[in-house]
């Protein structure tokens, strides 16, 4: 077998796959943040907590109601989405006339509450969630072993990301959405119910977080803290990509996941900070972000 | 963050320096703090003062500069590490240890600030949070920080090499001098011409630019100053607890200082002090309830943002129609 800079290809490809999986979560989460930001102009700090909630809802469905992985993949995002809509109606919608930083502060408080509650009832040790039977095992590709479930995570996240992109960029509904992002007052004057649209957008954005949580449940253990540190990295991803474009958020997510995986091969000590270093470089040379519009 | 100045301006009093009301409050506070260590456990009182200075430093940036940093734990924590290292490994006296921690925070503040001010509003908050997380990972992995253990049993030493700070009461008066002096300096900064320009930038940045102010230089200066005083608080805290740990650099610490300032009243002089006192006292008495403390803090955040944006001192200031 050939070697690259003294690194066996199995190790390299293994880390790249791991990077691609992390990238899948970065992409789905930063996509949700970008969709919400586009219309609401707030950064949803509770995104990590809602991702964690998605994983927990899947776990609860299985353990309390006997509902398996496949229905949970639809049900858990729906439940998280409805929960998000309740939060939007009760609280967020009352802050739109204020400085957008208040939205950030509110969602930070909500994240603390959600995480604290789950920590109280489920501890921090993490709960196992079994990989569904259809996706256990893996393929031997000759040059490396590909666990089926990991392949599925990458495929599922790609489908969801590009499905969302298609809906926003290519359909009539998406056109309304983009118009409302530019000028909500004018779109309202054309008879579109903008507050309803904002509510559903927030619900959809957090449902994406819930979906990512269900995907993550069998890989990482279901843990109240699983979203807290992840969301900070996703914030850095969002700063690097800029939230101006949906495609930008998706591509930046996968790209940074791969970079992180590569760093883990060549300079393991740096893998935890590489995304932040890239953020610093981007801020120096293109402060509005790789795909961002100057603001 | 737009906060209109509702207080009555009194030009005569301002020209004469500090308004009489503020003088009285500071004096009463000083007398109260002088007898406090004989009434409560001195270490608790010292913790209170360190966090009061931390919140006041943060408020300089948010309340007067209008910049929401979600990464102030980076400065608090790195100063705490450097001061602990200086006292333990280099064997520096307490005042020099605190000074080295503060200088470290100032340099870090300058570096992070120079990058962070390139973005505004929500992005600014995310950038500061991300850099603080980077500092956290460095603290977790670096050699001198001791990883998960932190730097433990930091010796207390002799002030100027002369006065022993080993017993709690003498250390208390050292901490009182440092934190009270820090708060007074922050007061001076806010009420200086520099502070007035900051207010102008906060209220209307394009206008400040059109008036010829180099807005970015002011932002960088206020960011660095805020980081420096946050560092002073963190460095002092490490001498009190004889410990620097990952808690000091974690994002929850950044969140706590935002909460203290929001609860007490951002953009007020005394608000952050009140907010810090409430949150630290609450943590002290609810420590046995574990994660419920997080939930309660979250609830205070939500209530503060939804119903109580002026904060406690902000509301009082509106009642008595005086800036506090």
Model description:
The complex is a heterodimer of chains A (295) and B (324). Chain A contains 11 helices and 2 strands, in the order ααααββααααααα. With 295 residues, chain A is an all-alpha fold. A two-stranded antiparallel ribbon of chain B has the order 1-2. Classes of the chains: A mainly alpha (295), B mainly alpha (324). Chains A and B meet through helix 4, helix 9 and helix 11 of A and helix 6, helix 11 and helix 13 of B.
Question: How confident overall, as mean pLDDT of chain A?
Answer: 90
- Alpha carbon gyration radius of chain B: 19 Å
Strands ordered across the widest β-sheet of chain A: 1-2
Number of strands of chain A: 2
Structural class of chain A: mainly alpha
Instruction: Report the sheet with the most strands of chain B, covering strand number, pairing sense and barrel closure.
Output: 2 strands, antiparallel
Structural class of chain B: mainly alpha
Shape of chain A: globular
Biggest sheet layout of chain A: 2 strands, antiparallel
Helical content band of chain A: over 70%
The multimeric state of the shown protein is heterodimer
List the secondary-structure elements of chain A in sequence, H or E: HHHHEEHHHHHHH
Largest interface: A-B, 46 and 44 residues
Number of helices of chain A: 11
Beta-strand fraction estimate of chain A: under 5%
What is the mean pLDDT of chain B?
90
Give the N-terminus to C-terminus distance of chain B in angstroms: 18 Å
- Helix-strand pattern of chain B: HHHHHHEEHHHHHHHH
Query: Low-confidence parts of chain B, pLDDT < 50 over ≥5 residues?
Result: 1-15
Task: Provide the low-confidence segments of chain A as ranges.
Answer: none
Major beta sheet, strand line-up of chain B? 1-2
């Amino acid at each position: 077998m050939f070697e690259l800079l003294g690194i066996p290809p199995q190790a390299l490809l293994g880390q790249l796959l791991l990077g691609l999986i992390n990238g899948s979560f970065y992409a789905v989460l930063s996509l949700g943040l970008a969709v919400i930001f586009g219309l609401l102009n707030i950064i949803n700090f509770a995104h990590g907590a809602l991702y964690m909630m998605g994983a927990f809802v899947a776990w609860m469905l299985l353990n309390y109601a006997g509902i398996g992985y496949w229905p949970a993949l639809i049900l858990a995002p729906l439940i998280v989405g409805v929960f998000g809509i309740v939060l939007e109606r009760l609280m967020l919608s009352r802050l739109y006339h204020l400085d957008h930083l208040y939205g950030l502060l509110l969602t930070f408080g909500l994240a603390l509450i959600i995480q604290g509650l789950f920590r109280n009832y489920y501890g921090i040790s993490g709960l196992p969630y079994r990989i569904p039977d259809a996706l256990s095992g893996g393929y031997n590709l000759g040059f490396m072993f590909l666990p089926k479930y990991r392949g599925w995570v990458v495929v599922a996240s790609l489908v969801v990301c590009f499905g969302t992109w298609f809906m926003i960029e290519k359909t009539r509904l998406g056109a309304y959405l983009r118009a409302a992002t530019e000028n909500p007052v004018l779109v309202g004057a054309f008879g579109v119910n903008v507050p309803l649209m904002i509510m559903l957008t927030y619900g959809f954005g957090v449902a994406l977080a819930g979906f990512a949580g269900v995907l993550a449940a069998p890989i990482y253990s279901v843990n109240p803290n699983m979203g807290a540190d992840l969301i900070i990295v996703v914030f850095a991803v969002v700063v690097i990509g800029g939230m101006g474009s949906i495609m930008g958020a998706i591509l930046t997510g996968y790209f940074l996941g791969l970079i992180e995986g590569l760093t883990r091969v060549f300079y393991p000590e740096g893998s935890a900070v590489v995304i932040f270093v890239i953020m610093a470089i981007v801020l120096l040379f293109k402060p509005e972000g790789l795909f961002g519009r100057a603001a | 963050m737009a906060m209109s100045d509702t207080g009555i301006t009194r030009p005569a009093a301002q020209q004469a320096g500090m308004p009489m009301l503020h003088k009285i409050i500071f004096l009463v506070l000083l007398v109260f703090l002088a007898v406090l260590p004989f009434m409560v456990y001195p270490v608790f009182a010292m913790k209170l003062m360190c966090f009061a200075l931390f919140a006041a430093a943060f408020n300089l940036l948010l309340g007067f500069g209008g910049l929401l940093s979600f990464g102030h734990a980076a400065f608090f924590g790195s100063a705490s590490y450097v001061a602990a290292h200086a006292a333990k490994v280099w064997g520096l006296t307490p005042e020099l240890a605190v000074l080295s921690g503060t200088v470290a925070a100032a340099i870090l503040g300058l570096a992070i600030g120079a990058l962070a001010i390139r973005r505004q509003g929500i992005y600014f908050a995310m950038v500061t949070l991300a850099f603080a997380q980077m500092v956290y990972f460095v603290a977790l992995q670096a050699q001198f920080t001791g990883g998960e253990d932190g730097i433990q049993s930091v010796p207390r030493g002799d002030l100027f090499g002369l006065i022993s700070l080993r017993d709690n009461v003498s250390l208390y008066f050292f901490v009182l001098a440092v934190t009270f002096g820090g708060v007074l300096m922050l007061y001076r900064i806010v009420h200086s011409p520099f502070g007035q320009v900051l207010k102008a930038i906060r209220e209307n940045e394009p206008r400040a630019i059109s008036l010829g102010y180099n807005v970015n230089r002011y932002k960088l200066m206020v960011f660095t100053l805020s980081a420096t005083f946050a560092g002073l608080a963190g460095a002092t805290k490490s001498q009190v607890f004889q410990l620097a740990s990952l808690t000091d650099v974690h994002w929850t610490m950044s969140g706590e200082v935002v909460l203290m300032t929001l609860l007490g009243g951002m953009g007020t002089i005394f608000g952050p002090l009140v907010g810090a006192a409430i949150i630290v006292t609450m943590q002290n008495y609810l420590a046995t309830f574990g994660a419920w403390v997080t939930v309660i803090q979250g609830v205070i955040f939500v209530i503060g943002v939804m119903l109580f944006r002026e904060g406690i001192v902000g509301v009082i200031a509106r009642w008595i129609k005086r800036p506090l």
